[in-house]
Amino acid sequence: MNDISCEYLRSGKLGKIKEVVGCNYPSPWECALPGEAVPEGLDWDMWCGPAPLVPYHKDLFGPRANPGWLSFRPYSGGEMTGWGAHGLDQIQCALGMDDSGPVEIWTEGGKFNPPTYTEPESRARGDKVCQVPMIYYRYANGVVVKLDNGSGGGGIFFGEHGKMDLSRGRVNTNPPEIAEEINKQAKGGDRNHVGNWIECLKTRAKPIADVEIGHRSTTVCHLGNIARWAGRRLRWDPVREIFPDDPDANQYLDRPRRKPYELPETI
How far apart are alpha carbons 226 and 231 in whole angstroms? Predict the structure, then answer.
């Protein structure tokens, strides 16, 4: 369904895309949970890896606990890189940008002010605070993607001939005839990702979403976080994958690594 919908958008049948609205994914916040006894058999030093060695806590160790490592720097990019990797991947695909990315990123709203969790609690407070400010991307063709009230698994596309709301195997459109056309095609056999992967193992063909596409999609997620951290408008070169003439922003493209978990100089 999603692949067919993306092909429909890329074909121009919805007309020129004027705007895309995605989900306002929260960025990560800080962790200062108290220490607990490390469970027997868990190599906590290795779990921390290149990140700072901090005390073990079950609500850091779990991915989505109270709140879990997925919400904390430096272990994750928050739901910006969690669910964002799914939703922004759909947007990249539909815009025909699987091998590229935006050229400008900026934020609007209050200053990014992530909390520090010192005791276990749900993600609710951190998610709310870390959705501010709102993130915008501009592509070279002029399309602007706004992270607001779109689905976490896709986006809302506004074209000259209508609107398409695309998310994880479902599509709603205005006019509804567009969705009816797409559903008819899907009944003929949509390209399932798992099935496609198995097929490509046998045929050695390139998958629907290969590693380079995954890299480009997650890069867009990281760019959203960087825009919040930098707090200013950023230019991005999707060919060289740097912020041109902006060493302050480029520092976010890598991270310090704790010994002995550094990357080798030559790979």
Answer: 8
